[in-house]
Design the sequence.
């Protein structure tokens, strides 16, 4: 599963930005303590996912489709497998399923995929709970504005509540075409890029856009 499904799928979907477990880590920390699930079409395994049972939580970890074939994503094989795994967990009396995580941007495809299951978004229970990514722009450039505008972020307030922050500027309204509503997220607010980037150098004259 690791070599023929997970690795080629991550390479096909993320290229040089692959984020996953090394093979030795996956073998010792996951495969020896986990449960692989497969989706078959006729006699061929076309999708797989590795899970671990931690108390009453089924943690869904490494997933992929055969040889990273995008056709298996288009025909819904991976989505069907997730549904079947969660149905199995329900039938076994397992209280919770954890979909692992994604980067804190609602524009990310992984967030959009997992949002289809209507999960509850929470701060991780692991050591990542105190490892929040922090964006610190150093210049007010068009590239910085484009990134912040196109990637509404899930942010955390001093009380520990999760929100979505939409950035906008004079010529571009907030990206409300990117839906945020999900259990665990308290609400959304808007922040003008001029306010966020006030006082930073502006090496390229982008006229506030």
Sequence:
């Amino acid at each position: 599963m690791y070599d023929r499904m997970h690795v080629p799928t991550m390479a096909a979907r993320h290229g040089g930005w692959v984020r996953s477990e090394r093979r030795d880590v996956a073998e010792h920390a996951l495969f020896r303590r986990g449960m692989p699930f497969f989706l078959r079409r006729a006699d061929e395994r076309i999708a797989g996912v590795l899970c671990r049972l931690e108390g009453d939580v089924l943690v869904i970890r490494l997933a992929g489709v055969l040889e990273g074939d995008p056709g298996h994503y288009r025909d819904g094989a991976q989505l069907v497998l997730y549904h079947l795994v969660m149905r199995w967990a329900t039938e076994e009396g397992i209280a919770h399923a954890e979909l692992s995580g994604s980067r804190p941007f609602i524009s990310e495809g992984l967030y959009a995929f997992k949002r289809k299951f209507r999960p509850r978004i929470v701060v991780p229970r692991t050591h990542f709970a105190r490892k929040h990514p922090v964006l610190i722009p150093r210049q007010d450039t068009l590239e910085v504005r484009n990134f912040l505008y196109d990637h509404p972020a899930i942010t955390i307030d001093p009380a520990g509540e999760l929100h979505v922050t939409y950035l906008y500027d004079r010529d571009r309204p907030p990206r409300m075409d990117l839906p945020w509503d999900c259990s665990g997220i308290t609400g959304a607010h808007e922040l003008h890029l001029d306010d966020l980037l006030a006082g930073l150098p502006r090496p390229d004259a982008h006229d506030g856009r």
Observations:
- Residues 130-196 form one domain.
- The chain has two domains: 2-100, 130-196.
- The chain has a mean pLDDT of 86.
- The radius of gyration is 20 Å.
